[in-house]
User: What shape does this take?
Amino acid sequence: MALLLVQTLNGLQLGIILFLISAGLTLVFGVMNFVNLAHGAQYMVGAYLAAWLIGLTGNFWLGLALTLPATLAFGLALEALIYRHLYNRDPLDQILATFGLILFIDEGVKTIWGAEPISVDTPAALAGGVALMPGLLYPIYRLALIGAGLAVAALLYLIVNHTRVGMRVRAGASNSAMISALGIDIGRLFLIVFGLGATLAGLAGALVAPILSVEPGMGDSVLILVFVVIVIGGVGSIRGAFLGALLVGLIDTLGRAFGPALLDLAMNPSAASQTGRSLTPMLIYLLMAGVLFVRPSGLFPVKR
Amino acid sequence: MNWRAVVPGFGFAALALVPLAARWGPEAYALNLATRALIFALAAMSLQFMLGCGGLVSFGQAAYLGLGAYAAAILARYGGGDLLLEAGTAIPAAALFAVATSAISLRAKGVYYIMSTLAFGQMLYFFFVSLSALGGDDGVTLDARARLAGTDWLASDRAFYYAALAALALGYLLLDRIVGSRFGRVLGAIRQNPLRVRALGFEPFRYQLAACAISAALCAVAGVLLANLNSFVSPAFMTWQRSGDLIVMTVLGGVGSLGGAILGALAYLLASELVSTYTEHSGLWIGPALVLVALRGRGLAGLVWGGR
Assistant: This one.
């Protein structure tokens, strides 16, 4: 029971992080029709900048506050130098460019900060644990992370659904040519969407810095999970990204924790442990295949 | 003069001369590099067929490479290490996996299709990572190179190079015929306008599914050869970065041209090798080069002769 609670919280936390990264990317896909493989690398840069700035200032909160504009600036620089020239181009050119960017950013990070993982201390105010049950301590920082993620999700929901900019973003995801024809400056809209995505990815990177080791290539594995989230949720849908992210986070975490044990009950133990270990990492991909089979444009497709 | 036949002919003839030239250099190293380049050229060409002819941007091509490699490793372990047998096992296995997964991914269009192929590739990757019977993450070693129809001709590196070259040339001829056939024309038409093709009475799904199976089968052959070249197989053969590499090779050579995929693969591998002899931070040079090619458009040809 205690283990189930801990693993559910861990799953929730992975889901929240995935949501922060995929919320921006799903809009970039949906509004700009742009295949940005380097989004995971932007998350990694966020983590590195946070580690560096927190170390430099000696203060977690100041470092975090400086990381957000820094990742925004990094994202906007990429947009101005490269991405802007690739909208309306063949997706293959976008893949080629952003794949090249991954190679460059991964290597660049290694050159600047070294290949060894960097660890970041949790802020003093959030250090230690809280007793969820008698004898069960759960780190406060992880709970705070879940709370912060939910707050950002709520804020994003308000912006996208109840402001003028949000309305334009939603309209852009449905039909960007039409809103351009209606006199909306589409270049500015793209910039807003892209900046939002870059900042959210940077925020996710900064938030995980104290609990994960910050290392080169950390964005690559996350990127694939984020793709799964977007395919499940539906390209261009924030709501889909939120539910997809929680689903992927919970299923992946709980599956790895309890999958082999559940199979033990059904089969003889040695066969079950082998099948379990092989099957559980595949669970979320099987989930994605199932969703694609039933609803080819995801659970919450954007109306066109 | 039929240039369409002459140019590839000269190309393959030039490739056949490589082992002779290698005698004047570090022979073992040069032959290994050249064989690897040919194998990746075969894999890139199989992707080009899907991508250039069929318009299907598959980001999971390395899965087929890995399936072929693991088929070779499993057969070699249980004493069935013959190249023909290995290819004969790898081809249906990869085609089957392609049909099963593409039947689902082809329901998705555009960006969805790209991401779903990527996810299926990762699914297979994680399957092999956690399959401890085959070494899991560490991979498996092949005791000896495969035999060919019962003989040990392939034991010589030079002969193995020619086997890879033969596979590449046969694959080229096969795909060239398919692209020019009725099937290939329907496939190309689907890429341009699936709605009209459907109105003409063709079901696009079947043609695309068949294209995925053909592409997977050829890529699996490349996987078998790669396993035998390295005498080693690991899940690293099928990471999504590998799929990305294959897309890079295909796009570098110019989308739509089978020969372009071969040139792209040779150029990308040789350039990576060359850069990594001068610096350990090769990504700092290769990455921006790819960005530059993408910004110019139309692959390497676009970089040299101006973009679109």
